[in-house]
């Protein structure tokens, strides 16, 4: 039986485009340049949880589907959610039947526009694992409600994985991302909210992941740290990849994209190697909690 890919793209909130880099180009840059930077994270989590045949995995903020594809390649049945319709369209391309080396499960992969509520509306069996790999998923205060809703769709005892940045001093990319915060900062006379534009980068507190899990009614059950370097072929690729994260959108609105690109390129100078490649060592952290 050939599985079908279920798609639901309604009620999406795609990111705004800035300057000459339209939203479709941004989504493609994410899929082709930036998303692969988190592959070490995906691999470490799937290996630790022994994700494989018989697992039903829900990926929150699945982007263009690379993490889902890797789980499907291990034999898992995968469902992904995201609010970016353009990234979901690319995930759909990746998850077409027959793309997974071991074959897709009988019920097929799914990408669903929105969040856990949209998945719940479609019905289906409960999940055996949930992942929230996007390190900025909690930037707008939506992480806890999202985890709470996702936990209601999982079997009791199932793991829920939350990922985040490690200490800023161990993340070379942190100094580059601060450029976005500076550009997006409001003038002092506008009152509270300095540097707090939605989607902007924020460093993680030491117990931030545990606190989010507790607030969502989950039980922490282990954690890990791993090296997750960001490497690019050249500075231009690095600028395009970092802009595709959406972390610089507020800065582009506050200033203009050309200025943001200029400051970003300057911030990357210390990480350009002699051969012209860009290399930024980072440490990421993940928490495994239980429903």
Automatic annotation (TrEMBL):
One Gene Ontology term of the molecular function aspect: methyltransferase activity
The UniProt record lists the keyword DNA repair: no
InterPro entries per the UniProt record, alphabetical: SAM-dependent_MTases_sf (IPR029063)
GO terms under biological process: methylation
UniProt region (Disordered), positions on chain: 1-21, 95-118
Entries under SUPFAM superfamilies matching the protein: S-adenosyl-L-methionine-dependent methyltransferases
Keyword line: Methyltransferase, Transferase
Listed name of the protein: SAM-dependent methyltransferase
Phylogenetic classification of the source organism: Bacteria, Bacillati, Actinomycetota, Actinomycetes, Kitasatosporales
């Amino acid at each position: 039986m050939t599985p079908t890919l279920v798609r639901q793209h309604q009620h999406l909130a795609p990111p705004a485009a800035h300057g000459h880099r339209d939203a479709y180009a941004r989504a493609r840059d994410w899929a082709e340049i930036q998303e692969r930077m988190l592959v070490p994270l995906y691999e470490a989590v799937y290996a630790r949880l022994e994700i494989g045949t018989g697992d039903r995995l829900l990926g929150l903020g699945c982007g263009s589907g690379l993490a889902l594809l890797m789980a499907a390649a291990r034999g898992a049945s995968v469902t992904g959610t995201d609010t970016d319709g353009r990234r979901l369209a690319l995930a759909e391309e990746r998850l077409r039947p027959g793309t997974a080396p071991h074959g897709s499960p009988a019920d097929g992969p799914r990408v669903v526009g929105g969040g856990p509520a949209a998945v719940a509306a479609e019905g289906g069996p409960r999940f055996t694992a949930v992942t929230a790999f996007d390190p900025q998923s909690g930037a707008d205060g939506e992480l806890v409600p999202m985890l709470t809703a996702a936990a209601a769709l999982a079997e009791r005892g199932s793991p829920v994985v939350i990922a985040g940045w490690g200490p800023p001093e161990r993340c070379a990319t942190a100094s580059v991302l601060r450029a976005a915060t500076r550009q997006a900062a409001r003038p002092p006379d506008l009152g509270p909210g300095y540097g707090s534009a939605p989607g902007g980068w924020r460093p993680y507190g030491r117990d931030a992941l545990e606190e989010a899990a507790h607030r969502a009614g989950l039980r922490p059950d282990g954690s890990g740290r791993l090296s997750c370097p960001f490497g690019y072929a050249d500075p231009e690729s690095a600028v395009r990849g970092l802009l595709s994260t959406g972390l610089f959108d507020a800065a582009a609105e506050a200033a203009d994209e050309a200025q943001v690109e200029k400051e970003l390129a300057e911030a990357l100078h210390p990480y350009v190697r002699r051969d012209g490649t860009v290399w930024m060592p980072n440490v990421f952290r993940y928490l495994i909690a239980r429903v």
